[in-house]
Amino acid sequence: MHTADAIVIGAGHNGLVAANLLADEGWDVVVLEEQPDPGGALRTEEITAPGFRSDLCAAFFPLGAASPVLRGLDLTEHGLRWLHAPDALAHVFPDDRCAVLSRDLDRTAESVAQFAPEDAHSWRELFSQWQGFRDEFLDALFTPFPPLRAGARFVRRTGTAELLRLARMLTLPARRFARERFEGEGTRLLLSGNAAHSDLSVDNAGSAVFGWLLGMLAQDIGFPVPEGGAGELAAALARRLRSKGGSVHCGTPVTEVLVARGKAVGVRCADGEPIRARKAVLADVTAETLYGNLVAPEWLPSRLLADLRVFEWDSATVKLDWALSEPIPWTARDARGAGTVHLGCDEDGLSAFGAELARDRVPEQPFLLLGQMTTADSTRSPAGTESGWAYTHVPRGSDRDTVRRQAERIEATVERNAPGFRELILARRVQGPAELAGHDANLVGGAVNGGTTAIHQQLFFRPVPGLGRADTPVDRLYLAGAAAHPGGAVHGGPGANAARAALAREHLLGPGYAAVIRAANRAVYG
Description:
Probable oxidoreductase that may play a role as regulator of mitochondrial function. This protein has 20 helices and 18 strands.
């Protein structure tokens, strides 16, 4: 039987972050990944035409570049280089108007002023507020919930009145928040379109904070991409881990977490081989996979399993990747320099899009998130061409015929705002829910954000005890994936929190930590 101090299940970015932090403390760490390569949703391949590199899932990384977790790993020393398109984001209206969000504050202000002159000042004011507490807010976001120490620093920096205003924003729908702060539809759609990245409807309570956060990050650091593709972020994490003595074993599915007397003692692989963990097992998988497949039910509270059955996953995703002979010929010229483009909907259209998905109906007019990857990174395709993609959402359980029809609507929507687009397509690849889940099993049913549909799930439904920590009902087993706080997106927060919990268990609190977790279990699950 092989042994290690820690076994990490899954080589997605959260698993690799957790492994790196443990290796930094001198732990012997083994990462086991079922796919042939590390990365999870961070994968880049030539899936359309030779020389055109497509990110299979995640593509732009504002939270990744801003994350104190990833910044603390100094991945530039291991080959990671962030690149930017001239503009972070453009929202193209159905009538061809266009609002631009740029890292250049003057350019953003000039763009939103075309819709309402007073919005230039309002946008500057909102961004100035963000700059005043940026670091404290991000520190609070990426520490276990509730963020007591980081939260205290945040309160001292902002003051009580400002904190209460931010607390109110946490409850607001994005559309309401945007209308309260801005007069013009351009600025409002920049925020609401960003809120839609979370897969919350712009009319859902709690969606405002996502639109605000992504909008402020776009203004602050842009929507950067790793040079060479999203896979380069995973590759840098893997290189760093190996330099610290850790190892990554791909093509090695884990079928069981081994538990003895309520304590995780190792894992069993698909080939039947057990591997012993001296100190911890960390799982970069969904809560459904960990508690429904990997841990035997006798080790889990019945209330936890009941809660898990009502967890609501996000809508499914349809994604097209294109190899284009030229850049997209937007008639709204301001969209040509944006790495990310939103299109297909105005304010009412965004509301209708979310309402149709909530009723399990296929939206006839989809809201699109589109990436112009060569615009951001010239290595993605031959000179003069464009490697592009777009995705939208459909109800969960949509069949292949629905995927095909929605793919046709995606291309028709782009063609309306960029006549001649279809003639530039050299090759295409359609990915539906099954294909996306095939790249990364954590994208259950094509849910690209991992189950953040309802805000109470994002903050409170983490089926783990300990006030939002990564701890589980099994001692020395930690949930390190997007089902743990602070949730989905590429930022490393869940992996870092799992590693910190494992280190605390081993070094700070000792054997008494297990008693704390058992008490928390009794309080939460009875």
